[in-house]
């Protein structure tokens, strides 16, 4: 997290969210970033009023595969990570009816057998949780065979992406 | 074979053969390991020795008091770990550079390879294959990309067409455009460097393990390691995930879809060690 002294000076600070991890912040000088999603899903949320943002990098759909792991690292799984992300954002005064939600990642390989379709299963798990809680993404960039990196700028709410093998960063959505 | 050799012979910067690795691998296979022979092999290369000691004392491997010489490192960490450090240091030199033909920035092929090595080793441990061989095969599986990168440079549009319009994997796109693909090229390089048949075949068939004959299991571990690295995001360049899924490779190892997810978790857990390897061996 950005330290207060840096934010007073107006430095933009990048908060990097690793695999199976998450971060929330209300520091407008920070950019939440997560690299190389592959088949993992990145969920970003942003409340434009309180300017609270959060970012989750979940690796697998369902925590029942390893409950002990889910206890220690809820961000590993979509089903435990999304509630943890929202709870942490609510603590910083984000409100459910205001948050914009973005879903990125869930890439696939060429697999007719379905054995390796973790990306699809991750995305399906996200959809399942969203529908149970009455949530909807305002923008998505999912599937395909590319590796994506995402950035959430907390001062503007702009969500941007970088795709492996391409040099340009592209804006997915402006809050 | 001639065509493979032609590609290998014409590239300007094929890295020097890691001469230490084949004899070290041979020692590793012996039931009674003579540590002094291992030390003799490694100490001839002072830079390598220094790197191994530095890694031994890094956060990921250090166990208390500092390790000061190779004998101590082996006694403390075990020969298998020291072997992996040696492979890692050798592999890092070869795999760090940018590979323009694949749109791979400096370090990206290396990071992918180390992750695949760790994942292949985890799979091998659970599937009664040799973890050190699997680690080595995982680390070197994309060696052929060093050779083909030059030939693919400036041909992005053609590669993209192969993948996007003809639905081919990157491997199939290479074969269609160049007549050869990176797995067979890498295997040929390893054969020329006198690596054992197990490793040559594991690399050759890392996209199609069921064709690897007697070396199916090792090739399947390598396949699984590569797949895990790709799925958890350690995949880079254009069409990073244009790979064929082969459930039959998992049948060879008796791995279920749930097992596979657990190996993904284990790989992620060992990531800290991987990152230490990536940084320390730079």
Topology overview:
The complex is a heterodimer of chains A (175) and B (282).
Chain A: H1 4-9, E1 13-16, E2 21-25, E3 30-34, E4 41-47, E5 52-58, H2 67-72, H3 78-91, E6 100-105, H4 118-133, E7 139-142, E8 148-153, E9 159-163, E10 169-173
Parallel strand pairs in A: 1-3, 6-7
Antiparallel strand pairs in A: 2-5, 3-8, 4-5, 4-6, 8-9, 9-10
Chain B: H1 2-10, H2 21-28, H3 35-43, H4 46-56, H5 70-77, H6 79-95, H7 108-126, H8 131-140, H9 144-152, H10 156-164, H11 170-178, H12 182-192, H13 197-204, H14 216-231, H15 247-253, H16 257-269, H17 271-280
Helix pairs in contact in B: 1-12, 2-6, 4-6, 5-6, 6-7, 6-8, 7-8, 7-14, 7-16, 7-17, 8-13, 8-14, 9-12, 10-11, 12-13, 13-14, 14-15
Name given to the CATH architecture of chain B? Orthogonal Bundle
pLDDT averaged residue by residue of chain A: 92
Per the CATH scheme, the topology name of chain A is 60s Ribosomal Protein L30, Chain: A
Give the total of domains of chain B: 1
Spans of chain A with pLDDT under 50 lasting ≥5 residues? 1-7
Assign the CATH superfamily of chain B. Hypothetical protein af1432
Order of helices and strands of chain B: HHHHHHHHHHHHHHHHH
CATH topology of chain B: Hypothetical protein af1432
Task: Work out the oligomeric state of the chains in this entry.
Answer: heterodimer
């Amino acid at each position: 997290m950005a330290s207060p002294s840096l934010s007073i000076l107006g430095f933009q600070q990048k908060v990097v969210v690793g695999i199976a991890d998450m971060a929330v912040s209300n520091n407008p000088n920070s950019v939440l970033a997560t690299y190389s999603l592959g088949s993992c899903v990145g969920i970003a949320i942003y409340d434009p009023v309180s300017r609270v943002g959060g970012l989750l990098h979940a690796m697998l759909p369902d925590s029942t595969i390893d409950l002990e792991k889910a206890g220690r690292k809820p961000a590993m799984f979509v089903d435990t990570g999304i509630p943890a992300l929202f709870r942490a954002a609510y603590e910083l005064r984000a409100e459910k009816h205001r948050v914009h939600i973005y879903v990125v990642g869930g890439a696939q390989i060429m697999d007719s057998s379905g054995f390796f379709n973790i990306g699809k299963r991750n995305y399906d798990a996200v959809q399942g949780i969203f529908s149970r809680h009455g949530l909807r993404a305002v923008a998505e960039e999912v599937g395909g065979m590319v590796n994506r990196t995402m950035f959430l700028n907390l001062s503007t709410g702009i969500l941007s992406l970088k795709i492996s093998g391409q040099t340009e960063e592209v804006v997915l959505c402006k809050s | 074979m001639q065509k493979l050799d032609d590609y290998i012979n014409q590239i300007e910067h094929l890295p020097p053969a890691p001469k230490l690795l084949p004899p070290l691998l041979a020692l590793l296979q012996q039931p009674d390991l003579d540590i002094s022979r291992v030390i003799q092999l490694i100490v001839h290369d002072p830079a390598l020795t220094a790197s191994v000691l530095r890694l031994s004392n890094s956060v990921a491997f250090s166990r208390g008091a500092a390790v000061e010489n190779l004998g101590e490192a082996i006694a403390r960490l075990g020969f298998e770990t020291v072997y992996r450090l040696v492979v890692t240091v050798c592999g890092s030199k070869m795999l760090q550079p940018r590979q323009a033909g694949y749109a791979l920035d400096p370090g990206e092929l290396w990071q992918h390879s180390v992750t695949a090595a760790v994942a292949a080793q985890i799979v091998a441990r659970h599937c009664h294959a040799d973890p050190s061989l699997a680690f080595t095969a995982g680390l070197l599986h994309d060696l052929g990309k060093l050779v083909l990168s030059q030939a693919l440079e400036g041909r992005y549009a053609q590669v993209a067409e192969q993948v996007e319009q003809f639905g081919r994997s990157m491997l199939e796109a290479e074969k269609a455009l160049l007549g050869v693909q990176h797995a067979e090229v890498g295997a040929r390089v390893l054969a020329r460097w006198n690596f054992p048949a197990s490793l040559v075949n594991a690399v050759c068939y890392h996209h199609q393990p069921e064709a690897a004959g007697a070396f199916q299991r090792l090739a399947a571990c390598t396949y699984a390691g590569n797949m895990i690295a790709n799925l958890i995001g350690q995949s880079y360049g254009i069409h990073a995930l244009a790979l064929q899924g082969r459930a039959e490779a998992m049948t060879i190892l008796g791995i279920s879809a749930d097992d596979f997810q657990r190996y993904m978790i284990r790989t992620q857990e060992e990531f800290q060690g991987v990152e230490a390897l990536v940084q320390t061996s730079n």
